[in-house]
Amino acid sequence: MSEIDLTTLRIVRAVADEKTLSGAAALLGYSQPAVSQHLSRASARLGQPLVIRAGRTVRLTEAGAVLARHAVTVQSALDAANGEISELGGLRSGAVRVAAFPTASATVVPRLLGAMAARYPGVRLSYVEVEPPEALDLLRNGRADLAITFRYPDDWSDPHARYPDELTMAPLFDDEVLIAEPAAEDRDGSRTTLQQYSSSEWIAGCPQCRGNLLQACQTAGFQPRIAHETDNAAAVLGLVANGLGVAQLPRLALSSVTVPEEVRLVRVAGMPSRTVHAVALSAARGVPAVDAALLAAVELDVGDWTSPA
Amino acid sequence: MSEIDLTTLRIVRAVADEKTLSGAAALLGYSQPAVSQHLSRASARLGQPLVIRAGRTVRLTEAGAVLARHAVTVQSALDAANGEISELGGLRSGAVRVAAFPTASATVVPRLLGAMAARYPGVRLSYVEVEPPEALDLLRNGRADLAITFRYPDDWSDPHARYPDELTMAPLFDDEVLIAEPAAEDRDGSRTTLQQYSSSEWIAGCPQCRGNLLQACQTAGFQPRIAHETDNAAAVLGLVANGLGVAQLPRLALSSVTVPEEVRLVRVAGMPSRTVHAVALSAARGVPAVDAALLAAVELDVGDWTSPA
DNA sequence: GCTCAAACATAACGCAGAGTTATGAATCAC
DNA sequence: GTGATTCATAACTCTGCGTTATGTTTGAGC
């Protein structure tokens, strides 16, 4: 709506510098008639001439001088904006807000943030620890840029599934789920199955993990008796060590705690492993910092969380 | 050149305010697809998204926020420029630099400047006194906006004629040229002719006026003997009053001095009158202050300079 | 859980505006 | 006067930015 456009400002400025339309045209990479015609149009729009031909050259009117003066302000604001956007594009600035589940806090997240900080010193990093469903909500609300989540196969309430195309998910690794049992308990050499724990008391934590447990036990043909509830891996191990029950624990949860002697970890057939993902909004693809964080996540070395401890 | 255009800035700003593309479109008078497509193009140009769709609404990315922030600066600069140009257009600001010949300094110019000052208090006025040829040079050099000049008919060196289309000339009035002679000299009742002064001594001033005198005398068949040279009307009258010669004097020059008793003013057949003009550069037509000054000049009441004193 | 309204995306299209080249006219320097 | 420089005008092309029409998704309310 404004009768003033950027081209006019740039042209007037160039004319002010060069004192000639030809010079201005050359300076801006235009043909001479382009400048001439553009100024005519602009003058018509503004209702008064911007330049006055003076012999062979040209000089600005007061209106032209006004534009030339303000052109400087506009140009520098534009340059500043361009510069800042370039910095975002070049990952010399920007921000990544990561949301991840508790077990990742001590493992995946520090490594990820470390890698990002090393590669892109200018990028601001922040982290919040929440369970996967909340992490996805944060993404959707625009309060986080990258979520590190896990999902269990066949999870009927998997929050990822609720937003099919909205999320871009990059699988990072498989996180095997082990059973922690008291080392004192008798074990024959036979292959372990979940069925063997049908009469055990269970220690279970977060709803999502518990969901997986219930699902697996149902498949195995029994319903687990959950006697103790905690999310804390160290606490779970303590309970197990003292013979108070058995528990499922992902390998990732074990990698940042010391496993007591009294606890034995066993792989159980039919116990589905969970998968850990880096998740971003599909709509946020293209945002440099988000793309970089996703890439950094899939490039993480995850060997020590996948090979047996 | 710059990947950023004003429309993008205005749209991003509107989106920042409205939180929705539809709202922004309505705010700006666009259709909704226009906003959507424009943002797509802008994102492509900038290499990163400006908005992220969040459910049914939308929110800005960091890049978008950068633009929205700088948009304020740009907009206010543009508004300022627009405002200043409107003031020029509305004659609440601007400048008129007038150049006029000495005789006009005490007559036409004060009245003109007075009228302008009264009508347009915001317009800056300035004045320089120069002879017509210099006044036209000032116009051409851009050092004056309006010239008050005179011209004699059949003046072979008329400076106005050198720039045929470059100048816009508005005739103000005819300035009759009289002969000042000592009142003591005998005069019969017959009609006065220039021929009668062929043996007189003349007092003459500026080259242009003298040119006219020479021209007229040549037509009358003699060459005037110029004994005294001055431009000053009072001085001329003093010389005439003391019987030192005769002189041609335009009525305008007489209107600001007192004519001594000893001087008689006579109209002479064949003495061409000069015409007074307001002159501006044709190229400056359209400049509000110049147009207004030209108009004010032709609207001046010139009665007391044209009717016999 | 279904339906409806609101919001964004995509497609197809029309038009204006801004650039181009070619050419003419005026000015200034030598 | 002559040639170089500069601006103006004409005629044309084409990109880009709007439009309308239509489809898809989301979220609220019954």
CATH architecture descriptor of the largest domain in chain A: 3-Layer(aba) Sandwich
Largest sheet of chain A: 5 strands, mixed
Oligomer state equals homodimer
The SS-based structural class of chain A is: alpha/beta
Number of discrete domains of chain A: 3
The beta-strand count of chain A equals 12
Question: What do we call the CATH topology of the largest domain in chain A?
Answer: D-Maltodextrin-Binding Protein, domain 2
- The CATH superfamily name of the largest domain in chain A is Periplasmic binding protein-like II
Q: If you compute it from the alpha carbons, what radius of gyration of chain A comes out, rounded to the nearest whole angstrom? A: 32 Å
Q: Which strand order spans the largest sheet of chain A, edge to edge or round the barrel?
A: 4-3-5-12-6
The end-to-end distance of chain A, rounded to whole angstroms, is: 67 Å
Strand content of chain A: 15-25%
Helix count of chain A?
12
Shape estimate of chain A: rod-shaped
Your description of this structure?
The structure is a homodimer of 309-residue chains. By secondary structure, chain A is an alpha/beta fold. Chain A has three domains: 84 residues, Orthogonal Bundle (Arc Repressor Mutant, subunit A), CATH 1.10.10; 112 residues, Periplasmic binding protein-like II (D-Maltodextrin-Binding Protein, domain 2, 3-Layer(aba) Sandwich); 96 residues, Periplasmic binding protein-like II (D-Maltodextrin-Binding Protein, domain 2, 3-Layer(aba) Sandwich). Chain A contains twelve helices and twelve strands. Chain A is rod-shaped. The model of chain A has no long low-confidence stretch (mean pLDDT 88). At the A-B interface, strand 1 and helix 4 of A face strand 1 and helix 4 of B. The structure holds a DNA duplex (30 and 30 nucleotides).
